[in-house]
């Protein structure tokens, strides 16, 4: 069974940084594109970034472009999201997810709170 486990969330002040990690198991991690999706309180899920499995190409939502960096370490079966210059509107539950035809496996999420 595919399992994705996020960690690294917490409380930070505006302008601060966090790095999220997602450990994958139950799959050949290097074969799959991976994404980060977030869900703010009372709102629907928002896709924020994807990294391809083939050439490592990355894609970002406009709201995080230039501030967030997605990366992966296939040897460690780990996906990362480096978040810099955090804003209050980044407050959300952050999920990693695996691509099949859709985002077909999700982690449990890790909470990021950006507040003074």
Any overview of this molecule?
This protein is an all-beta fold and 116 residues long. 0% of the residues lie in helices and 53% in strands. It has no helices and eleven strands. Strands 2, 4, 5, 6, 9, 10 and 11 form a seven-stranded mixed beta sheet that branches. The radius of gyration is 13 Å and the shape is globular.
Number of strands: 11
Order of helices and strands: EEEEEEEEEEE
Assign a percent range to the helix content: under 10%
Q: Report the sheet-strand fraction.
A: over 45%
What coarse outline follows from CA principal-axis ratios? globular
Main sheet makeup: 7 strands, mixed
Q: On the 0-100 scale, what is the average pLDDT? A: 97
Count of helices?
A: 0
* pLDDT < 50 runs, ≥5 residues: none
Task: Give the C-alpha Rg.
Answer: 13 Å
Summing up helix and strand content along with how strands pair, one would put the structural category as mainly beta
- Taking the alpha carbons of the first and last residues, their distance comes to 40 Å
């Amino acid at each position: 069974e595919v399992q994705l486990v996020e960690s690294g969330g917490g409380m930070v002040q505006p302008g601060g940084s966090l790095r999220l990690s997602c450990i994958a198991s139950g799959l050949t991690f290097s074969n799959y594109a991976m994404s980060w999706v977030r869900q703010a309180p009372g709102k629907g899920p928002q896709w924020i970034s994807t990294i391809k499995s083939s050439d490592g190409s990355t894609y970002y939502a406009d709201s995080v472009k230039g501030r967030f960096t997605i990366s992966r370490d296939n040897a460690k079966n780990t996906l990362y999201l480096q978040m810099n210059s955090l804003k209050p509107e980044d407050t959300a539950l952050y999920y990693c997810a695996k691509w099949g035809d859709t985002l077909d496996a999700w982690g449990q999420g890790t909470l990021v709170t950006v507040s003074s």
